[in-house]
Design brief:
By secondary structure, the protein is an alpha/beta fold. 48% of the residues lie in helices and 14% in strands.
């Protein structure tokens, strides 16, 4: 299954027998956007933020974005609003000052007159975003299945990166909504974020655990390495599979 690392961490800390076996995105594909009068990241200080519930990827994204500019949650006034549509609406209607969202949510916000404040991907903050997860039991009892899944995910990343037109058409078909231009913007930003070798980021997991420790004391004692099983991506690298896939030597 493809999960957010925050869900993996919460699941394992709660006793789940799971492990990350490969990765799709190793940084934060989020944007801080808000009212046009916010001229710079420093202007966020003291302003009201539309937040998701604590412990979600969006919550972590905001905390790390603030950390990246030398702030913390104490420097803003957070209001828990919930899902993306509600957060964007709260800011667009002037109830709150800014929020955090994905590319699609940023595009919607911009159409409503909001302004990009921070492109978090450009901060290069390591963060285990989307990743593939398997139970330890499945890894023990059916490692070949897991290896084939990891290989298939690497092939899917390669296809996405190299077949823009069909990928955009597929996204539009199953979303049944926005125009091709919308998905072209989403495609372009996602293409740069996808990890070719699909290796998880240990440093990104450490960043998440550091913040999670303020919400769950068990996270303070956890090690990032305990959340991953790298044997399958190691095998892809050792076999030369990724190099051949991208035509590298």
């Amino acid at each position: 299954m493809v999960w957010m690392s925050t869900a993996v961490i919460n699941g394992k800390l709660a006793g789940g027998d799971i492990a990350i076996v490969n990765s799709l995105v190793n940084t934060l594909p989020y944007y801080v956007f808000g009212k046009p009068e916010i001229k710079s990241p420093e202007d966020l200080k003291g302003r009201f933020a539309a937040m998701h519930i604590p412990g979600t990827a969006v919550d972590f994204a905001l905390r790390l974005a603030l950390k990246g500019i030398g702030f913390s949650l104490k420097d803003i006034k957070g209001v828990t609003v919930g899902g993306a549509p509600a957060r964007v609406t709260a800011v667009a209607t002037g109830q709150l000052d800014f929020t955090v969202g994905t590319e699609a949510e940023k595009i919607r916000g911009e159409k409503l007159g909001l302004k990009l404040i921070i492109d978090m991907a450009k901060l290069n903050i390591p963060f285990q975003f989307t990743c593939t997860v398997a139970t330890r039991r499945t890894i023990r009892e059916n490692p070949d299945l897991v290896q084939r899944m990891v290989r298939a995910m690497a092939e899917a990343v390669h296809y996405y990166k190299n077949h823009k037109d069909p990928v955009v058409k597929i996204m539009q078909k199953y979303s049944r909504g926005p125009s091709p231009a919308f998905f072209e913007e989403v495609y372009d930003s996602s293409r740069e974020l996808l990890v070719e070798d699909t290796y998880p980021t240990i440093e990104g997991l450490k960043n998440t655990l550091e913040i999670q420790a303020s919400l769950d004391p068990k996270a303070a004692k956890a090690k990032a390495e305990d959340f991953v099983d790298l044997r399958f991506v190691d095998e892809l690298k050792k076999s030369g599979f990724i190099q051949k896939l991208y035509g590298k030597r």
